Amino acid sequence: MYKFVNYKMKEKEVIQHIINWMTDYQKRSNTNGFVIGISGGIDSALTSTLAARSGITTLCVEMPIHQNKLQVKRGENHIKWLKNNFNNISSIEHNLTDIFDSFEKSIPNKTEKNELALVNTRARIRMTCLYYHAQVNNYLVLGTGNKVEDFGIGFFTKYGDGGVDISPIADLLKTEVYKLAKYLGINQDILKTPPTDGLWGEDKTDEDQIGATYPELEWAMNFNENEKLITERDKEVLNIFRKLNLQNQHKMNEIPVCKIPKLLK
């Protein structure tokens, strides 16, 4: 299988382009800065580093909910690294475990079907927390989704981590995210850790949930060859991508609006 990677990327220029875009948007929106959730993962690490390099005031928020201690530690180490290298970074931790537990206890008639709904509830509680800080401080909420997640398979929670003001890295493939993160010197423990959304009780990786790696999904996203000539694994990955892309269109498209004909108004 061909693993799609943009080897010709001009890292320095791409980084400056994103920073310029973020800075311009922040100025035009007349806001005071950025707020971002830090998960200990590669996407939030890159996005927060770009915000730090912009020089704009940025609040990093940790929001553990029954979180794996290694994920929490990676996030803490990343924030420490940011503070040691940039003077526009502040941070706060909100342990949201009790809030989540209280909500879960209030749910009647629990069944196995509740699991995914509760996973998404974690993301939506975090979104609420970020928008609290955004409104109090007149900040913009930074999205951390990459191109495959946001526009390929819809691998995000609607009105959870998908609830943001701007998306600085949403035109970057995951492999490109890693290239920029490495270029910027982001911590090795983040670079080498398998991607995970951190929303499950166990340490379930993105690949465990999706059934394919990000390089495989990038290949599928750009596939335009003869399907008769590809391997069985290639076909399996294509099916995974197409299935997720189709079922998650409601996340990736604008909310459907019922338009009333003028003759009825």
Describe this entry's structure for a reader.
- This protein is an alpha/beta fold.
- The protein has one domain (11-253): Rossmann fold (3-Layer(aba) Sandwich).
- 51% of the residues lie in helices and 7% in strands.
- It contains 12 helices and 4 strands, in the order H-E-H-E-H-E-H-H-E-H-H-H-H-H-H-H.
- It has helices at residues 11-28, 42-54, 69-85, 97-105, 114-137, 147-153, 174-183, 188-191, 206-210, 214-221, 232-247, 249-252, and strands at 33-37, 58-62, 89-93, 139-141.
- A 4-stranded parallel sheet has the order 3-2-1-4, sandwiched between helices.
- Helix 10 crosses helix 11.
- It is globular.
Please give the radius of gyration in angstroms: 19 Å
What is the total tally of β strands? 4
Number of domains: 1
Order of helices and strands: HEHEHEHHEHHHHHHH
Average of pLDDT:
92
Q: Give the class from helix and strand content and strand pairing.
A: alpha/beta
What is the distance, rounded to the nearest whole angstrom, between the alpha carbons of the first and last residues?
Answer: 56 Å
Overall 3D form: globular
CATH topology: Rossmann fold
Question: Under the CATH scheme, which class?
Answer: Alpha Beta
Beta strand %: 5-15%
* Sheet with most strands: 4 strands, parallel
Helix content: 40-55%
Please name the fourth-level CATH homologous superfamily: HUPs
- Low-pLDDT regions: none
Helical stretch count?
Answer: 12
The spatial strand order of the largest sheet comes to 3-2-1-4
CATH architecture: 3-Layer(aba) Sandwich
